[in-house]
Amino acid sequence: MDISIDFMRRIADAAAAETLPRFRSQGAVANKEQGSFDPVTEADREAERVIRALISAEYPDHGILGEEHGSENISSRHVWVIDPIDGTRAFISGLPVWGTLVGLTVDGDAVAGMMSQPFTGELFYANASGAHYEGPGGPRRLTTRKTTSLAEATLFTTTPALFKGDARLRYDLFERQVQLARYGTDCYAFAMVAAGSVDIVADPGLKPYDIVALIPIIEKAGGVVTTFEGGRAESGGDILAAATPELHAAAMAALRG
Fold it and tell me: Averaged over 137-157, what is the pLDDT?
């Protein structure tokens, strides 16, 4: 099935009405995980609430999986996967690299998705027509860079600290092979792969709501998204996105050691 850009814009606008007034407002932050820090804010909860309401009204038979409010009807062939604020740590730090992620799976495959960054006024989305951008500079079709060599690649990861034990050693060797490595930016780094500004993102330990929306955006722009082992990424896990199949293969080999 196809999802109209008008519906994606409606979702982005509704979420922005909840997130933007609370951004850089010094609101309360709760911790979801005892023994570490996994922040959640009122903006997270309220943005997901309005997104779910829009989806339920438009597609009442579809399932929904959200980070903050759980799952409903996920035995449906069509399941929407929501992260109302991907990058809550950036959000509470006042950095505009967070985004609202909403993706649709059909029989488990990600077929449409959007990433909205309302503070910068950007919308990245993919549907049956391809991968597209709306924002500063005007609308355009998204296309990945044609980088095939690690030595010419720009790599992002949230932080190397997420790689544990031998995986950290392999990551460090991998990072030494690329031209430029940078950290942070959560979903924005993945969007930059689709936009042709970043070549590789390697992020371990992602949840479905961290990646489902981004899969079709990157794939329809010409990139590849899998687990580190080459499996489908819809269920989350250790996720590797790359601008070209050749670069993806080289990065996967490097991460395996």
Answer: 98
Instruction: Please calculate the CA angle 127-141-158 and round it to the nearest 5 degrees.
Output: 80
d(CA 244, CA 133): 19
**110 confidence band (pLDDT: 50, 70, 90):** very high
3-state DSSP of 56-101: HHHCCCCEEEECCCEEECCCCCEEEEEEEEECHHHHHCCCCCCEEE
Give residues with Cβ within 8 angstroms of 103, minimum separation 6. Answer: 80, 81, 110, 112, 113, 114, 212, 213, 214, 215, 216
**Which amino acid is it at 14?**
A
Query: Under DSSP, is residue 255 helix (H, G, I), strand (E, B) or coil?
Result: helix
**Residue with structure tokens 């997130």?**
19
CA neighbor of 51 nearest in space, from 75, 93, 86: 86
By C-alpha distance, which of 198, 199, 223, 194 is closest to 132?
Answer: 194
28, 33, 92, 208 from 38: Cα distances, Å: 14, 5, 12, 16
Q: What is the 3-state secondary structure (H, E, C) of 211-230?
A: HCCHHHHHHHCCCEEEECCC
* The pair of three-digit structure tokens given for residue 22, joined into one six-digit string: 């609370």
Residue with tokens 């997420």: 162
- State the average pLDDT over residues 28-40: 78
SS (H, E, C) 36-57: CCCEEEHHHHHHHHHHHHHHHH
Calculate what percentage of the chain has a pLDDT beyond 70: 99
The number of residues making up the chain comes to: 257
Q: Which pLDDT tens digit goes with each residue over 152-186?
A: 999 999 999 999 999 999 999 999 999 999 999 99
pLDDT surpasses 80 at 228: yes
Query: In sequence order, what are the beta bridge partners of 94?
Result: none
